[in-house]
Amino acid sequence: MHSLFDNCIMQHIRDGVQYNTTDVPVIASNKDDLEIVNGTTWNENIVCTRDVITSGSYRVLLLQQPYGAIAQTPGWGAAFRASGTHTIYNAFEFLNSPGQFYFDKTAKTLYYYIRPGKNIGYIENGDYAVYNNINFGAGASSFQARVASGASGMHNVYLKFTGGSGYLFNLNWFQFTGGSATLTAVYPVWDTGDIKERGNKK
């Protein structure tokens, strides 16, 4: 459900569009990047936002002005309006289907929801991948990754642990398979906040 935000610039012109909080999630960053698309039989209106706020049970997308106001003025049913169907673009929080992507202009990072059968290619030293907001449900018991092309020689492997304060999880082991050897990596244990090596096997 959505409607024009009741903050009048002039008669019949509103400063934003409000949606139920169940329809639009909290937008954490780049709130001025969102685009609202509202199509009619004859045209398509695209208005941009300048901010996203929460007002009661509504998420309010405040429009960039003056274009947000101008888009509401055409006659003959061609104006931007709150009724009908809206499509909102350009927020990381909307990534939910393979093939979608989002470019974070502040972090200069491209996020891509990978399609089945695809992989992250041409990985070089210093590259990394981030997967945000992973829901572990009642708890995950294992982690498995498939490497699409082989690695050879000796390399340093870093596992970075981030999350809320306090205990996150235990790490038992991980392994690489394929080629001429199966390598089971270091068995670490927690010790006063640091990971200490307890041995490895080959």
Descriptive report:
There is one protein chain. The protein has about 200 residues and is mainly beta. The protein folds into 2 domains: about 1-95; about 150-200, no CATH class. Helices cover about 0% and strands about 30% of the residues. It is built from 1 helix and 14 strands. Strands 1-4-7-6-5-8 form a 6-stranded antiparallel β-sheet. It has a two-stranded antiparallel ribbon with strand order 2-3. It has a two-stranded antiparallel sheet with strand order 9-10. A hairpin with a 4-residue loop joins β9 (about 100-105) and β10 (about 110). The longest helix has 4 residues, at about 65-70. The protein is elongated, with a radius of gyration of 24 Å. The protein starts with a strand and ends in a 5-residue tail after the last strand. The model is unreliable at about 190-200 (pLDDT under 50).
Keywords for this entry:
202 residues, mainly beta, 2 domains, elongated, single chain, two-stranded antiparallel sheet
Topology readout:
Elements: E1 2-4, E2 8-10, E3 13-14, E4 16-20, E5 35-39, E6 44-55, E7 58-63, H1 67-70, E8 86-89, E9 101-104, E10 109-112, E11 175-176, E12 183-184, E13 188-191, E14 194-197
Antiparallel strand pairs: 1-4, 2-3, 4-7, 5-6, 5-8, 6-7, 9-10, 11-12, 13-14
Outline:
elongated
Q: What is the chain-wise order of helices and strands?
A: EEEEEEEHEEEEEEE
Work out the radius of gyration. Answer: 24 Å
Number of strands: 14
Instruction: Report the sheet with the most strands, covering strand number, pairing sense and barrel closure.
Output: 6 strands, antiparallel
Tally of DSSP helical segments: 1
